[in-house]
Design brief:
Structural class: alpha/beta
Number of helices: 10
Number of domains: 2
Largest sheet: 6 strands, mixed
CATH class of the largest domain: Alpha Beta
GO molecular function: metal ion binding; succinyl-diaminopimelate desuccinylase activity
Shape: elongated
Radius of gyration: 24 Å
CATH architecture of the largest domain: 3-Layer(aba) Sandwich
Pathway: Amino-acid biosynthesis; L-lysine biosynthesis via DAP pathway; LL-2,6-diaminopimelate from (S)-tetrahydrodipicolinate (succinylase route): step 3/3
Strand content: 15-25%
CATH superfamily of the largest domain: Zn peptidases
Pfam family, one: Peptidase_M20
Helix content: 25-40%
Strand order of the largest sheet: 1-2-6-3-7-15
Catalytic activity: N-succinyl-(2S,6S)-2,6-diaminopimelate + H2O = (2S,6S)-2,6-diaminopimelate + succinate
Keywords: Cobalt, Hydrolase, Metal-binding, Zinc
Length: 427
């Protein structure tokens, strides 16, 4: 009967769940540059403090992106139970990406229509944060005698690597295995899926070099853009076809991400782009430099050193065959793949909860992109971590992003039932 009452408690909090999600979406916590971080952390901290949580606001001083103008704020709230036991931590990122073009609704209006809340960050991932808070509050009200602790955090900068958020907190010991034993990250992977981990990533900036000259006499110079074009041609002819032949055993979704991938994230050659109010023409120069940022996603079966070596070998092939070709490579960002075992305690608890709430066994997946599990795993040394939350992954970063209210309610029930399995004797 107590479990049934817990499920009913969550259903009865639908209006609160909607309002909480809308309030957060209406705070434009855009990253970059990192706006509104303190506002949303104070908002959530005040709510959870009223519910008996011990609340800390933590600024990631000195982290990438942190400045007095755009400080990297995080909130961590902990509610101790009546008896000793393990801690279950729900972690969500409060930052959202740029709006982009193509919206038909106000990106920060949080409009509720036909059972959906629309706006930037609804799906990725303020709806997931709201669902975890409702789940935790309902669980505590229904099982005030629970053992252990419940923690909720809202953290910065996941959309730009997480170094001002979970990475910083992990370095401070927040995710140390002696104080936190289970972590659930409510990323939008669908309410009937458990995300066990993610592929690896290597970002690098590649520069091709040339020689500046007058644009009317390009034969006196050496065009770095043409060198970059030769590099891309070699990538088309050899690298992309090679990546298409490799496939991981990890259950990565969507299907195309079972292969390693490479994206050209940005490219620029020649003189710098002028300010928007500049009305003149560009100067007549041969570009003496061109830069490209690559985003290489690699599978668990590819060691990182081999990923880098393969790309450097490609560069050397171009250099051997092309007169004047010279280059430089700068590493920007790298993350190893992460994968939690299916028999891990948090996986088993969430799996059983999904079966009870939705009436079917979950699908086990892995993410094509990295998320903050990487820092909990590599820095926090905590392996018992998954992503589970409401929302359709394909909507993330898209115009007219939305989250379904029923999906949030169902996921909140799964999260609350997970807490009973891990922190009470009714699991």
């Amino acid at each position: 009967m107590t479990i049934a009452r817990l499920m009913a408690e969550i259903s009865a909090r639908e209006a609160d769940l909607i309002a909480l999600t809308q309030d957060m979406v209406r705070m434009p916590t855009l990253n970059p540059p990192g706006r509104g971080y303190l506002e949303i952390c104070e908002y959530l901290g005040n709510r959870l403090a009223k519910r008996g949580f011990d609340v800390q606001l933590i600024r990631a001083k000195g982290a990438p992106g942190d400045s007095d103008k755009y400080p990297r704020w995080n909130v961590v709230a902990r509610r101790e139970g009546a008896h000793p036991g393990e801690c279950v931590h729900f972690n969500g990122h409060h930052d959202v990406v740029e709006v982009g073009q193509g919206w038909t609704v106000d990106p920060f209006g949080a409009e509720l229509r036909d059972g959906r809340i629309y706006g930037r960050g609804t799906c990725d991932m303020k709806g997931g944060i709201a669902a975890s808070i409702i789940a935790a509050e309902a669980f505590i009200d229904t099982f005030p005698d629970f053992s252990g602790a419940v923690e909720i955090s809202a953290t910065a900068d996941e959309e730009s690597g997480g170094y001002g958020g979970v990475a910083y907190l992990a370095e401070q010991g927040v995710f140390a295995p002696d104080r936190v034993q289970h972590v659930i990250i409510p990323e939008p992977l669908h309410k009937d899926r458990i995300c066990l981990g993610h592929r690896g990533v290597w970002w690098a900036e590649v520069e091709t070099k040339g020689h500046i000259a007058h644009g009317s006499m390009p034969f006196l110079g050496d065009c770095a853009v043409r060198h970059m074009s030769a590099l891309i041609t070699e990538m088309e002819e050899s690298l992309w076809p090679a990546l298409a032949t490799r496939e991981t055993a990890m259950p990565v979704i969507p299907e195309g991400a079972r292969n390693p991938t490479l994206n050209i994230n940005a490219i620029h050659g020649g003189e710098p782009v002028q300010e928007a109010d500049y009305t003149g023409l560009p100067s007549a120069c041969v570009p003496d430099r061109a830069r490209m940022v690559i985003d290489r996603r690699f599978i668990a079966e590819e060691p990182l050193d081999e990923v880098k070596a393969e790309f450097h070998a490609l560069l050397e092939r171009v250099k051997k065959d092309r007169v004047g070709f010279d280059y430089a490579v700068k590493d920007l960002f790298e993350v190893l793949p992460s994968m939690t075992a299916k028999d891990a305690p948090v996986v088993q608890a969430v799996s059983g909860a999904i079966s009870d709430v939705l009436g079917a066994a979950p699908e086990y997946v892995a993410s094509p992109g990295t998320y903050d599990q990487k820092h909990i795993d590599r820095i926090g040394r905590l392996k018992n971590c998954i992503a589970y939350g409401p929302g359709v992954l394909d909507l993330a970063h898209q115009p007219d992003e939305w989250i379904g209210v029923q999906d949030m309610l169902d996921s909140a029930q799964v999260m609350a039932l997970t807490l009973t399995r891990l922190l009470t004797d009714q699991g």
